[in-house]
Write a structure and sequence with these properties.
Elements: E1 3-7, H1 12-21, E2 26-31, E3 43-47, H2 53-59, E4 65-68, E5 79-81, H3 84-102, E6 106-112, H4 122-134, E7 141-146, E8 149-150, H5 155-166, E9 169-172, E10 179-180, E11 183-184, H6 185-197, E12 204-207, E13 214-215, H7 216-227, E14 232-235, H8 242-252, H9 256-265, H10 276-281, H11 288-297, E15 316-323, H12 330-344, E16 349-353, E17 359-363, E18 369-375, E19 385-392, E20 407-413, E21 418-426, H13 432-437, H14 439-457
Parallel strand pairs: 1-2, 1-4, 2-3, 4-6, 5-15, 6-7, 7-12, 8-11, 9-14
Antiparallel strand pairs: 10-13, 15-21, 16-17, 17-18, 18-19, 19-20, 20-21
Helix pairs in contact: 1-6, 2-3, 3-4, 5-7, 7-11, 8-9, 12-14
Amino acid sequence: MSTVLIAGATGFIGRALAERLRGRSRVIGLTRAGAAPAPYPGIGWRSCDLFSLLQCEKALEGVDTAFYLVHSMLPSAHLTQGSFQDMDLIMADNFARAAERAGVKQIIYLGGLTPEAPDLSPHLKSRLEVERTLGSRRVPVTALRSGLVVAAGGSSFEMILRIVRHLPVIPCPPWAKTPSQPISLPDLLDLLVFCLEHPDARNRSFDVGCPDVLSYRKMLEGAAAARGVKRRFVEIPMRGTFWCRHWVSLVTGAPQELVAPLLESMRLPMVARDKRLQEQAGIPGMSYEAALRKAIAEEHPAEPFAGRARGPQHNVRSVQRIPLPPGKTARWAAEQYSAWLPLLFRTFIRAERDHGKNVRLMLKFPRVTLLQHAFAHDRNQAPDRQVFYITGGLLARPEQRATRRARLEFREALGGTCLLVAIHDYRPTLPWPLYKLTQAVIHPWVVRRFARYLDRLAG
């Protein structure tokens, strides 16, 4: 019996997929929590923070096939600096590196339908970047690209139901007429299992969807009819999404960090270009109306927007994406950073680097150590990722745990075209309000200055 791992197993698709695979394979679910969630019969659990490469490597040991059903549009720490696209990129890169090291035979990824448009939304760009990153190693990847998944517990679908439930008059901006092609959860599960059981689908991407192409307004109208309520739909001329995210968040209870990217994506048509996988699998898909009735019949009172862990109190994650000069590596960038940093603060701060590449940032007067960065020799053999553990200093809270250690990393991404400068699991000693006004503001500014410095070095 093969071993199948599901990253995103606590989500509504992951839970349903685990149940579908139970008995066919040995199923392992990943969870960020320290303890396993409520028990699922026949499913094992491994604790894993996808922002940690070390934890990913341990979690993927002995796995034959891995499903990747993860997207990070919500904060992952008490303070999260950086875009959700860069958070997604780091997690996907960790997963791909760990899968290659563990000898995983296949990764199956669920992404999003991609319009043929020159200016994709950040949400859709991120889906493609994740797909590209998962496929950047030697593990074969099968990517399914879908639109809205019609199912009880799905965040996007739940927003449609709540708008219909709470608003007697529903405003419809011009982009409410944008065509889209949803898919039912049972059909999506059948296709994911088909990819698992048919090796010829590896190293390929497939668009999937139901037989119906309909606008978001038609979806809302269908949901109102299925619920047996009368709603008035009013066209309004406002084309942007900024104004809309506020009332959608207010009506549905969904956080704006989730609402804003989804609304931006609605401005572009999301229609399957071809459905060759469904033709091969003999799964044409149920209609939107049938999927809607099934989802409403299975609706449960669970709160799909609750329980989004933001990490321990006063925990910080900061990810900044900057260009990496052609032909340069993360190792080169890390060396430049430790040499450049004292030049930026030459009046107040000095940096000392010993023979072990450890770096200590100090005040010139009085001579007080602000931060100590220990070079992780055992984790830095590859030139495309360099890690420094933040081990002490006046500004860092000491951490005794072996996992979730505070660290600064330099990582190449997207084929070496960009560099991610990231701080993970950092806990400052400054009072939290003071930290947010000072150190938290300074770090992104420093990284932007560093990007300009690298650009000058590259000529």
